């Protein structure tokens, strides 16, 4: 314990009427309480990450090398750009869908429609990603339900029906799966707001979309950002959806990692790909932390 910490501990003990030994025992008890959680993080997260980094930077003879990253960039840079584009587009669409649904749940004037929407939008939360991939294969295939509906409605000719099992299918699956999660967070934040500003804006004749954009969204921006960052990182790590919908090149990085391990047994390149994905996820975390620090300083 540093000298400054000792002086601070002594002052706190004097204020609370405790002896220094009692305060020290209490501090060690607090460390003991968080010890198991820190041990789990160290063993199951920090240690595997460190081992992955060591393997990614170690050559065949044990020397430091960047050849695995060079190989990953040469073979999979298109897939890396494809992954970033898919995840960014899905994140934007998730935000739009979540804002629309949460806004209607907050400002909707039809109680029955609000109740039905509140009951329906949560369903994808309880469906695993692998089931989502299979559902989308059935729904978006050339002979799938979507084309049957469009053909039955006369909007598409039978010979013009196309499969959507490509990048569009991945985006649809991600938005369908993650939008309810962000909506749940956003609707809860909107429901906790003071209604004075909303009622004042409505009394002045502002339409509901202006109230949502100008009054409500600025107050729940932090919650929306948290949900979008969590969804961004989650979509980067999903394997089942791109593997079932669009396994051909270009595809997402998770499919490439599985391919390097299962087909070639190349753990070094697979670890390099994982670290590249970690850097991409780190940008999302940096963006969130920057926004949080700015909000805290204000």
What does this protein structure show overall?
The protein has 298 residues and is mainly alpha-helical. It is built from 13 helices and no strands. Helix content is 77%, strand content 0%. Helix 2 (20-57) packs across helix 13, helix 8 runs antiparallel to helix 9 and helix 10 runs antiparallel to helix 13 (267-297).
Quickly describe the structure.
The chain folds into two domains: 1-57; 66-297, MetI-like (MetI-like fold), CATH 1.10.3720.10. The protein contains 13 helices and no strands.
Biggest pleated-sheet summary: none
Q: How far is the N terminus from the C terminus?
A: 33 Å
Please provide the ordered H/E string of secondary-structure elements.
HHHHHHHHHHHHH
Instruction: Name the average pLDDT.
Output: 85
User: How many DSSP E strands?
Assistant: 0
- CATH secondary-structure class of the largest domain: Mainly Alpha
Write out the CATH superfamily name of the largest domain: MetI-like
Total of domains: 2
In the CATH hierarchy, the third-tier topology of the largest domain is known as: MetI-like fold
What structural category characterises the helix and strand content? mainly alpha
Strand content: under 5%
Name the overall outline: flat
The number of helical runs is 13
């Amino acid at each position: 314990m540093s000298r400054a910490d000792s002086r601070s501990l002594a002052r706190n003990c004097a204020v609370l009427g405790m002896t220094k030994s009692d305060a020290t025992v209490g501090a060690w008890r607090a460390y003991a309480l968080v010890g198991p959680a820190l041990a789990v993080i160290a063993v199951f997260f920090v240690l595997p990450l460190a081992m992955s980094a060591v393997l990614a930077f170690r050559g065949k003879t044990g020397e430091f090398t960047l050849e695995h990253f060079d190989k990953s960039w040469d073979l999979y840079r298109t897939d890396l750009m494809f992954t970033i584009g898919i995840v960014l587009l899905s994140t934007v669409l998730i935000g739009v869908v979540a804002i629309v649904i949460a806004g209607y749940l907050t400002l909707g004037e039809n109680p029955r429609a609000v109740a039905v929407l509140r009951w329906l939008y949560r369903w994808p939360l309880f469906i695993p990603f692998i089931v989502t991939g299979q559902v989308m294969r059935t729904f978006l295939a050339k002979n799938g339900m979507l084309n049957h509906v469009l053909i039955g409605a006369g909007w598409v000719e039978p010979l013009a029906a196309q499969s959507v099992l490509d990048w569009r299918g991945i985006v649809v699956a991600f938005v369908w799966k993650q939008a309810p999660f962000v909506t749940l967070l956003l609707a809860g934040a909107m429901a906790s707001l003071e209604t004075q500003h909303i009622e004042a804006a409505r009394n002045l004749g502002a339409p509901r979309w202006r109230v949502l954009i100008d009054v409500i969204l600025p107050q729940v921006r932090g919650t929306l950002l948290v949900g979008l960052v969590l969804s961004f990182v989650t979509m980067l790590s999903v394997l089942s959806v791109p593997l079932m919908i669009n396994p051909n090149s270009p595809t997402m990085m998770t499919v490439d990692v599985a391919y390097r391990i299962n087909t070639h047994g190349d753990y070094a390149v697979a670890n390099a790909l994982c670290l590249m994905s970690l850097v991409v996820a780190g940008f999302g975390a940096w963006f969130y932390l920057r926004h949080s620090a700015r909000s805290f300083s204000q």
